[in-house]
Amino acid sequence: MAIPDVQGSADSRQLPINKVGIKSIRHPVKVMDKNDGVQHTIATFNMYVGLPHNFKGTHMSRFVEILNHQEKELSVESFESMLRHMVKRLEAETGHVEMIFPYFINKAAPVSGVKSLMDYEVTFIGEILDGDRYRQTMKIVVPVTSLCPCSKKISDRGAHNQRSHVTVSAVTNSLVWIEEMVQMVEAQASCELYGLLKRPDEKYITEKAYDNPKFVEDMVRDVAAVLNNEPRIDAYVVESENFESIHNHSAYALIEHDKRPRP
Q1: Is 75 exposed, middle or buried, given 0-12, 13-18 or 19+ CB atoms closer than 10 A?
Q2: How many Cβ atoms sit within 10 Å of the Cβ of residue 19?
Q3: Domains and CATH numbers, the chain
Q4: Is the pTM of this model over 0.85?
Q5: Which residues have CB under 8 Å from 7's CB, separation 6+?
Q6: What is the DSSP letter of 77?
Q7: For 112-140, what is each residue's pLDDT tens digit?
Q8: pLDDT at position 77 over 80
Q9: CA distance linking residue 24 with residue 247, whole number of Å
Q10: CB of 145 within 8 A of CB of 161?
C-alpha cells in the first residue's frame, strides 16, 4: 500500500514561505586553520529552503539526509556544493544554511609569553539567492576590553573598563582567514583578551587599556575603517556591545556598509 505524501500535496492559500527547514542539528566539521592546517570542531547547523506557495510543506527528513550524506566531517570547502545539493534535492529555488562553531586560537601572553587557547564563536552563512546566485557571509564574535574615555577624563584615580563583544558579519569575495578577522578587531580595542595571564601580563594589559580608551562608538568606527580598506570584503555589519561595569545595561553601536557599486 502506498503511503501518502502529505507534505508534497498542493496548498491553496497562495502564500510562499521564505524559510522552512530545521534548526540546531550538530555535526562534526573541519575548518582551515592558518597556523596548523586544519581544526576539528562541532558545528550547529540551521538549514532552510524557500517554499513556493503551491506546496503544503517541505520534506524535513531530507535536510538530515543531506547533512549525513556528506563526508564524516563536513568542510567549509564543501559548504557551497552541499547547499546547492540541498536546494536541488528539495526542489527549491532558494536556500540558506548557517554553520555555527567554536574556533580556537592559541595565543601567547604579551609579556610572559605563556600560551593558552582563546575561543571565538564563528558562523558561516551560505545562501542560494534568486537567479542561482551564491553568497557567503562570515560572522565572528570577538571578545575584547574597552576602557571608558569619559571615566578616565573625569576621575582622579583609574577608569572603569569592561569586556565587550565586537561582532563582524562580512560578505567576502575571496578567502579571509578567521585569524585575520580576529586580529582586525582586536587591534582596534582598548586591549585584547587572553586565556591565561601572569602578573607582568596583567600589569601590561591594564596599562595598555588605560592608554587606549574607547567608547563603543570608537570601537565600531575603528573596525569599520579597517574593513573599508580590506578589498576581500564586499559588505559588512560591525556591532559592539559593551557590558558596562558601572551600569546594569549595555552600551551598543552598529555600522552597516555595502562597498559594492550600486547598479
Answers
A1: middle
A2: 13
A3: 19-258 (3.10.270.10)
A4: yes
A5: 55, 56, 57, 58, 59
A6: G
A7: 999 999 999 999 999 999 888 999 999 99
A8: no
A9: 33
A10: yes
Average model confidence (pLDDT) across the chain = 90
Q: Tell me, what DSSP letter sits at residue 69?
A: T
Of the candidates 97, 192, 110, 100, which has an alpha carbon nearest to the alpha carbon of residue 140?
Answer: 100
Measure the CA angle with vertex 225, ends 221 and 231; round to 5°: 145
Phi first, then psi, for residue 185 (nearest 5°) are: -80, -50
- Alpha carbons within 13 A on the beta-carbon side of 77: 7
Neighbours of 15 (CB within 10 A): 8
Rg (CA), the chain: 22
The tens digit of pLDDT for each residue in 2-24 reads 665 656 666 667 788 889 999 99
- pLDDT higher than threshold 80 for residue 52: no
d(C-alpha 130, C-alpha 110), whole Å: 48
The set of residues, in sequence order, having a beta carbon less than 8 Å from that of 229 and lying 6+ positions away, is none
For the stretch 153-206, pLDDT in tens is 999 898 999 999 999 999 998 889 999 999 999 999 999 999 999 999 999 999
* Greatest mean pLDDT range, 58-62, 171-175, 217-221: 217-221
Q: Which residue has the cell 586565556?
A: 195
Q: Can you give the length of the chain in residues?
A: 263
Q: How far is CA 146 from CA 74, 166, 216, 243, in A?
A: 36, 10, 8, 9
Please, are residues 169 and 254 in contact by the beta-carbon 8 Å criterion? no
Instruction: Name the residue type at position 72.
Output: K
